[in-house]
Every structure is written in C-alpha cells, then in structure tokens.
Write a structure and sequence with these properties.
Elements: H1 3-13, H2 19-33, E1 51-62, E2 65-73, E3 83-89, E4 95-102, E5 113-121, E6 124-135, E7 138-148, E8 155-156, E9 173-181, E10 184-192, E11 198-205, E12 212-219, E13 227-236, E14 239-247, E15 260-270, E16 275-277, E17 287-288, E18 296-302, E19 308-313, E20 328-329, E21 336-340, E22 346-350, E23 358-367, E24 372-374, E25 379-386, E26 393-399, E27 402-409, E28 414-418, E29 425-429, E30 437-443, E31 446-451, E32 456-461, E33 468-473, E34 477-484, E35 488-489, H3 494-504
Parallel strand pairs: 1-20, 4-35
Antiparallel strand pairs: 1-2, 2-3, 3-4, 5-6, 6-7, 7-8, 9-10, 10-11, 11-12, 13-14, 14-15, 15-16, 15-17, 18-19, 19-21, 21-22, 23-34, 24-33, 25-30, 25-34, 26-27, 26-33, 27-28, 28-29, 30-31, 31-32
Helix pairs in contact: 2-3
C-alpha cells in the first residue's frame, strides 16, 4: 500500500473527531435556525445559510449525492476570509446545507480557503483548494488538500501545502483543477505570468500528494487579461473544453461588458506535450458562457448519467448587493447542462430536473403586444413562444421604479436584456430557426433567461417588489407561467444525524 494512502486511512479512521467539529456543527445549526424569509432571499437557488457567498469551489458526486461547495464568509454580507460552504442533493434541485467543509485556521490558509476542485479516489472525497495568506502588501497563495471518508467532515492534509509557491514568484496562483487520466493525476492552476498576462500552469502526480511542474498549458497572446482563475478542463463530443474566468479583458463592442468574464475555448489537449495543440487563446476564440450582468466563475462535473453539469456564481465583483444590509449576499445559479452543437457552440440549459419544482400552472394564454398580467409570485418559471422569427418579441418584467426587459430584434438578429441604469444593456447575436422560444426563471432577486436550445443565456440580479409581465414588440406570444416551490434548506433530520456521527467517531 502506498505510504500516503496508509497515512490518510490512519488519519481519518484512527484519530478521533476533532472537538472543533462539534463546535462547527453547533454554529451551523444555530445559523440555520435563524434562516428566515429575509428580503430578496431566493427559494430555489443556493445561498449561504448566513453571510456572503461567491463562486462555487467544487462540484462532484460522492456516496449517492451531488455535492456543491462554495466560497463564503459566514459572519456578514460582505467579502472577507473565505470558508468553504457545502450543500448536498440527490436530485440536483433539492439542496440541503451541510456544515462548513473548510475553515481558514492554519498558518498556510489563515486568510482564506479559496476555490479549487474535488475528486473521489479509493472511496475518499478529496478537496483541493488554495490557501491564502496576506503578509503586509504581499499575497501568498499555496495549493492544499483535505480529505473526507464520509462526505461531511474533512481533515486537512498533515503535510500541506502540497505546492508551496508559484514558479513565477507572483502571488496570483490559485484554484487548482485536478483530474486523473491513465493513472496519472493532473492539475492546472490559474496564474499570472512575469509579463503580467494570464496563464495556466500544469502539474502532474502519481499519488495526488507529490506534484511536479510540467510547464505552461496555454499562454495569453496579450489581449486576454492579466489573470486566469478557476480553470476547468473536460472532454465533450470529441473536443476538450477549457473554461477560464478572466480578469482584465477590455470591452469589445457588446462583448465583455462586465468587470470580469467567464468563457470557453475549444481544442485538443495533448497529454504527451502537456499542452493544447494549435490552440490560440485570444478574444477572437474566447466565447462568453453567459451574457448577463451577474455571472462569474463556474464548476462542472459529469453526472452519473453522462451529462456535463455546471453551476456558477450568480454575481459579479463590485456590484451593489442590496441584500447585504439584511446579513446575506449573493447566490449560485441553478444547475445547468452543457452540450456541444455541430457548429462547435456550447449550449447551456437548465437541468431537466427543474421541472420537478413546478408547483402550480398560474398562466396559460396568448398575449398581444401591450397586454400584461400580474406575476402573482416572486419565484416562477416563464415559458415564452412566438409565432415566427420574423417579428420582434419583447417581454418586460415591470415593478415600481424599475424593470427588466428581454427583447429579440428580428431585423438585426440579436437578443438583449436591459435592467436600466448606466450600462444596463447586455446583447448577443441570436438567430432562431422556427420561432422565438424563451425560458425565464425568476427567484425573488434573480433572473436567468435561456434562449432557444441554450445558444444564449443571460443571468442578472434584480430587486423588484410586486411584479407584472408586459408583452411588447410586434408579435403575439404564448405564455406559460409556473409557480416554483422552495427547494433549498436544512433537512429536519440532519441535526440528529450530525450528532450521532460525531458520537460514533
């Protein structure tokens, strides 16, 4: 048996549970008892039980459950030292909060446990994450791991960090993505080059604990920002899809209108060279995943039925999180399925399980331009179908002093959203074939718009009071509206399960 595997087994099963686990559970249960209907809080999107949430940190399947981890600060609705929150589901829509998976309390991560990835190996769930230390003006980021034998409680590796510093000598060095190919473990890490361009570094390992640097996977051509973070790499329909979140891309017309951008590049990864063959990484080949105002950083995984799934942060840095005054901030997107069409375009749609949240059909009618109806609920799904692609279609979510407009312009072949204010418009080219088809999901303070088969997606934060839906443009449309039920919370049996687990260990 490999010595590291032996150490891990001894460490997880012989050493008794840390007393901090009990304190962690007590704190977690207390916070969950205080989770009430706070203003603007969604009911079917993952938020932290209390406090700030940002990007997902890992997404995996372990012991018959899907696990989503996310960065969060549990004490107030503002960014600060990052923990790893944890939510679990057996169907991708009903999510139960688990106690905090990782907390910044060791010398190598005392200022934050930043995002990474998760893998399952030898019946253990292993989390790879970036430890963050701030020393004066210097930021130090290291790569670390933590392991669990039950999917609830995690032990940080005794010999962290597993990678101590960036080979570039620059502090921007984070978000390890780990996977295995032909009995070799690979890791890509987002970094900044000495020339201050974004880059990805490749490492390999025989055992997940000892890593060697293989070199640079891809380099920026100079127009792709100064930092690439949260990389993800997977195979889909014969292509390798590389997803990166980029800091520092300049706006290009209607592209890249947000502060930071998340998008993808298609290519072929050569495991012998440790590089992509003939991949040009520039704004010409970088495709936005989501065109909305609030979408940044994602994690993906392969479901047990083979689907490629994605979850992202439904937020954007330097945004006005109005809900932060109520002690919480931001949310994750719903889980989405990724598919690649014959033109090499990545399609993104809600997972089919979202239909399980439909509680009541409250609208089923044709509407002409100028007509409207009351939303009647704060959390709903709206399905819009037009009669042709030759006419403009406009759907407006209206409330006092605000609104969110979704508009398809036939003559110019684009679709846009407008939430008002300065720089409130986002736009993408879109050419539906038969008719205009939209699925619009609203959840108290968020809206996600899926166009056609997922060719274009917009995700945005909104802050409505009572809402009505008005039809404009020059096309009659058919509307279906479903009230959606609550699907995120705390399982009533979890408290006793946690206590029994700690007693037994």
């Amino acid at each position: 048996m490999d010595i590291h595997v032996f150490v891990v087994i001894l460490w997880l099963w012989v050493i008794p549970a840390d007393v901090s686990d009990l304190g962690n559970v007590e704190s977690f249960l207390t916070k969950n008892k205080r989770v009430v209907k706070k203003k603007y809080r969604p009911i079917y999107h993952i938020t932290a039980p209390e406090g700030w949430i940002s990007n997902p940190t890992a997404f995996t399947f372990y012991k018959r459950h899907y696990h989503i981890f996310y960065q969060y600060h549990p004490y107030n609705g503002a960014w600060d030292q990052m923990n790893w929150g944890h939510a679990v589901s057996d169907n991708l829509v009903d999510w139960t909060h688990y106690p905090t998976a990782l907390m910044p309390k060791d010398h190598y991560d005392r200022h934050g446990c930043l995002a990474g990835s998760a893998v399952v190996n030898k019946n253990f769930l292993t989390l790879f994450y970036t430890g963050h230390i701030v020393s004066g003006r210097e930021s130090i980021q290291t790569q670390n791991l933590a392991i669990s034998g039950d999917g609830m409680f995690f032990r940080k590796f005794l010999y962290n960090p597993i990678i101590r510093e960036s080979p570039n000598g620059i502090g921007e060095f984070r978000n390890p993505k780990v996977w295995r190919f032909r009995n070799i473990w690979y890791m890509i890490v987002g970094a900044t080059s000495r020339e201050r361009n974004g880059q990805l570094l490749l490492y390999s390992s025989d055992d997940m604990f000892n890593w060697k640097l293989n070199g640079t996977v891809v380099n920026s051509y100079g127009d792709m920002g100064y930092m690439w973070e949260n990389p993800d790499l997977f195979e889909l329909n014969g292509y390798h899809v590389l997803i990166i979140s980029v800091e520092g891309i300049e706006a290009d017309g209607w592209r890249f209108r947000n502060l930071y951008q998340t998008g993808y590049i298609l290519g072929q990864f050569n495991y012998v060279k440790g590089q992509f063959d003939d991949m040009e990484v520039s704004i010409a080949t970088f495709n936005q995943l989501d065109y909305g105002h609030d979408f940044y950083t994602v994690k993906t995984m392969t479901a047990i039925d083979g689907r490629r799934l994605l979850v992202g942060w439904l937020g954007m840095w330097e945004s006005d999180f109005i809900e932060s005054t109520f002690g919480w901030a931001s949310m994750l997107t719903m889980v989405r399925e990724l598919r690649l069409n014959k033109n090499g375009r990545l399609l993104m749609t809600p997972v089919e399980e979202m239909t399980h949240l439909r509680q009541e059909l409250i609208e089923n009618a044709w509407y002409k331009p100028g007509e409207f109806f009351q939303a009647e609920t704060k959390s709903f799904e709206l399905i819009v179908n037009s009669t042709s692609v030759q006419s403009d279609v406009v759907v407006i979510l209206e409330w006092n002093f605000g609104g969110y407009t979704v508009g398809y312009t036939a003559a110019h072949g684009y679709i846009s959203v407008d939430r008002g204010g300065i720089d409130g418009v986002r736009r993408a080219y879109w050419s539906p074939v038969d008719h205009v088809h939209l699925r619009i999901f609203v959840d108290s303070s968020s809206v996600e718009v899926f166009c056609g088969d997922g060719e274009v997606v917009f995700s945005s934060r909104i802050y409505p009071n009572s809402m009505r839906i008005r039809i404009d443009g020059d096309s009659e449309v058919h509307i279906l509206q479903y009230k959606l039920r609550r699907s995120v919370g705390l399982d009533n049996n979890l408290e006793q399960r946690f206590r029994n687990h700690l007693i037994n260990t």
